[in-house]
Amino acid sequence: MADPSTYRPSPGTIPEAPGVYKFRDAGGRVVYVGKAKSLRSRLNSYFADLAGLHDRTRQMVTTAASVEWTIVSTEVEALQLEYNWIKEFDPRFNVRYRDDKSYPVLAVTLHERFPRLYVYRGPRRKGVRYFGPYAHAWAIRETLDLLLRVFPARTCSAGVFKRHNQMGRPCLLGYIDKCSAPCVGRVSADEHRDIVDDFCDFLAGRTDAMVRRVEKEMLAASEELEFERAARLRDDLGALRRALEKQAVVLGDGTDADVVAFAQDELEASVQVFHVRGGRVRGQRGWVVDKVEEVDVVGLVDQFVTQFYGEQVEGAESTGVVAMAVPREVLVPELPADAEVLERWLTDLRGSKVQIRVPQRGDKRALMETVARNAVEQFQLHKLKRAGDLTARSAALQELQELLGLDTAPLRIECTDISHVQGTDVVASLVVFEDGLARKSEYRRFAIREAADEGDVASIAEVVRRRFQAYLKETANDVPGQVPGIDPETGKPRRFSYAPNLLVVDGAGPQAQAASDVLAELGITDVAVVGLAKRLEEVWVPGEVDPVILPRASEALYLLQRVRDEAHRFAIAYHRQKRSKRMTTSELDEVPGLGQTRKAALLKHFGSLKKLREASIDEISGVPGVGRRTAEAVHASLTTGSGAASTEGESS
């Protein structure tokens, strides 16, 4: 591992001009490429204290052995040069937004004499026009099947086409009028290309003109008493409209935009893009990428626009449809710092004006929220994918044992997290994972008592103490000769009868040390304790000065993140429930003599405080268990305004 100070340039030698820089390893290979408005300011940030760098950045600067830079005249030149170098050198630490080959597209082989339509996955090829990508291959085949009756273009492979040409008779699709059968000369090459061009125009968004043309031909055939032709055109019109229904109208006619959204944590980011052409969602795609540096949404937008549209244009230049690759609008959650520079660059690529905007209201804002939900969902699925794989879980447990120096693999892991709002309604969660899977029946939650006003460290200590005191109490009741941890009367496991192999606390060194001190105080020595800090996903071992840095792509880190995130979710859910209950019943707390049972009965009967406030004394006294005097007290308390004031005070 290289020491960055050994190759750090002298501060005075780095220019303040805009430019592009390359980090190279000891073998001379480029490991990272970046751009900057000020090279001096940007490069100096890489040579700060290593402990303050993002995990991935720290790994990059310690892998590199030298850095070099190139000065450019404008920021647009820097954008272009950065993209070209990333494409040329393919640096291992740069994010590449390549097309995900798992997404199918509809390909049209325009370079062939008789173009072919087919479903395709893989890298872009010269002379082929692509539509999509689509979420599922069956969605393409359904749409294609509908459109073939209107645009009967060839869909067969070269071998099938050649065989039927030699046989002199078409395939089944030719007999059922879903292919114009150019293989046997039913249409000429020019006529077949016209069919394919109409098909491409329809998928490119020029749908209204196509529908109007077919409708006009249908009416003309009907007036000329060509009823068979009119019936066929009617069916064609229905097929076109059904194909349009499969692509929901989301924006106004003529809208040409890509809608981009992100979901992220400290180490990775999920990106989702919806492609809207002619006001309709024509395709979507998504990625989950490593974060090279600690960047916010603004930085992610900057990276994505540069990488994605550079790749898109290169794939489109061979087919002459660059305008389809770069839309008129790019809708993003936040504007990048150099939005104007990116707009000029995209405008040069497209050949006409391109805008980068943040939608504020209306249909575009609603679609942005939909794309954002897709990004979050994709990120969660990515996180869960490894957790559900048996091989990955086994590898994670083995890695944890090796990296943390445990005697055995941590088959049972427990994690605790604290949740509160400015010290109020302090609660804690305890989640359990066995063999790398969540065991939700073992989850427990705690309302913090003594340490509620003393901070998270004291709260962690209280939770650990209460959990393991219960464990010691229950194990003390085990009867020799019987299965440990099982209640002999019910035959079911006791609530805290099993100790974990590994206890994870959400936090850094102080939280982990507090949990370890409590276990030592209770005389429990066979439970390992670690803290998982959110900022850089550092693993803190009690008594150690420096944290353990797990490999960012390791199964062990994924498992710890999953355990920590589940504890966080469970704690927040309990906190919201407790806070909501307190807020709901606070007005009724002021009613003298009204206990929890009758409070619950009133709220259940009326459904809400609002309806209870509107009820008469007779209606309130009609609730079982609520007498006339109590009803009068409730009515007086809710209508005088004192209850409302009390609630407002508690909310603040």
From TrEMBL:
Keywords: Cytoplasm, DNA damage, DNA excision, DNA repair, Excision nuclease, Hydrolase, SOS response. It is found in: Cytoplasm. It holds the Pfam family HHH_5. One of its GO terms (molecular function) is excinuclease ABC activity. The keyword DNA damage applies. GO terms for biological process: nucleotide-excision repair; SOS response. InterPro entries: GIY-YIG_endonuc (IPR000305), GIY-YIG_endonuc_sf (IPR035901), GIY-YIG_UvrC_Cho (IPR047296), Hlx-hairpin-Hlx_DNA-bd_motif (IPR003583), RuvA_2-like (IPR010994), UVR_dom (IPR001943), UVR_dom_sf (IPR036876), UvrABC_protein_C (IPR050066). The keyword Zinc does not apply. Residues 631-652 are annotated as: Disordered. Residues 208-243 form the UVR domain. Residues 16-95 form the GIY-YIG domain. Residues 259-519 form the UvrC family homology region profile domain. Residues 636-652 have a biased composition (Low complexity). One of its GO terms (cellular component) is cytoplasm. Interacts with UvrB in an incision complex. HAMAP family: UvrC. Belongs to the UvrC family. The UvrABC repair system catalyzes the recognition and processing of DNA lesions. UvrC both incises the 5' and 3' sides of the lesion. The N-terminal half is responsible for the 3' incision and the C-terminal half is responsible for the 5' incision. This is UvrABC system protein C.
